[in-house]
Amino acid sequence: MGQSEKPVLCLTFDNMGEAFNVFRGKSAVPDPAAPGITVGFPNILGLLAKYDLRATFFVEGWSALHYGEVMDSLLREGHEIGLHGWIHEIYADLSRRTALQYVSDGLQVMKLRGVRPTGFRAPGGRIGPYGHQILSEKGFSFDSSVDMAMPSEIPTDISEYSGDGLKQLPGGLINIPWQWFMIDAVHYMLAKNGLRNPDDLAEYWSKVIRNAARSNGLVTIISHAHVTGVDSDRLFALEKVLKLALELGFDILPGEQAMLRTEHLS
């Protein structure tokens, strides 16, 4: 698809509260005192407000049901809310019936919260065999999932990467792709060779941002309130990357706006 006249940073955040622990059988009810809720989200919202930025928060349907105050805070600040499955299940592994159920139930809860999500990101990252057809049937505009599983190691040389391009999918759906090495949790927790030091990650992501700036590319960042928002050093690392992007002339946008900014040039 077309390329923007300016580089675009699609700024996104995934997960809310105890949904993933419910999926893993470690929790049954929300924890309103969890650090991600009491510290992470306020810190993230404070950072975005400092630079007058808007982002997409991909929220599980179960979380939207149980964390109404956090949902309200996102909406008050003008952020976009996308659907992130139901309980952070591994979406790619679901049967079609269950995949449809989780999207349908998630949309119904979002409706009760006054939200009509236009974007979706599959929990676990991968969309699976049924996702795109279901999303098209349900009237979504974009999907920000991928088809590839997380690699065991992330690339140390990212000099050739200068961003991604939007993909037109059957049924009118647009895919906003991303790379596993642009996820905070992959570096801090998951990948064998992930960058555990926030300063190192800021430098790594800054290289990506500089490369994309030279080609007016599209880059998607995925962070988490319970990973970056609860740690001052990690939060400052994200801030450094956002400041650099602004200095280099990036449009920092939530998903739907990032899609439209590029799509109209196709």
What are the low-pLDDT stretches, counting only 5+ consecutive residues below 50? none
In the CATH hierarchy, the third-tier topology is known as TIM Barrel
Structural category:
alpha/beta
Range of helix content: 40-55%
Give the distance, in angstroms, between the N- and C-terminal Cα atoms.
5 Å
Q: What is the assigned CATH homologous superfamily?
A: Glycoside hydrolase/deacetylase
| DSSP E strands, number | 9
Cα-based radius of gyration, to the nearest Å: 17 Å
Instruction: List the domain count as a whole number.
Output: 1
Assembly state of the chains shown: single chain
Give me the number of helical elements: 10
Shape: globular
Give structural notes.
This protein has 266 residues and is an alpha/beta fold. The protein has one domain: Glycoside hydrolase/deacetylase (TIM Barrel). 41% of the residues lie in helices and 12% in strands. Strands 1, 2, 3, 8 and 9 form a 5-stranded parallel sheet that branches. It has a 4-stranded mixed sheet with strand order 4-5-7-6, covered by helices on one side. Strand 6 and strand 7 form a beta hairpin. The mean pLDDT is 95.
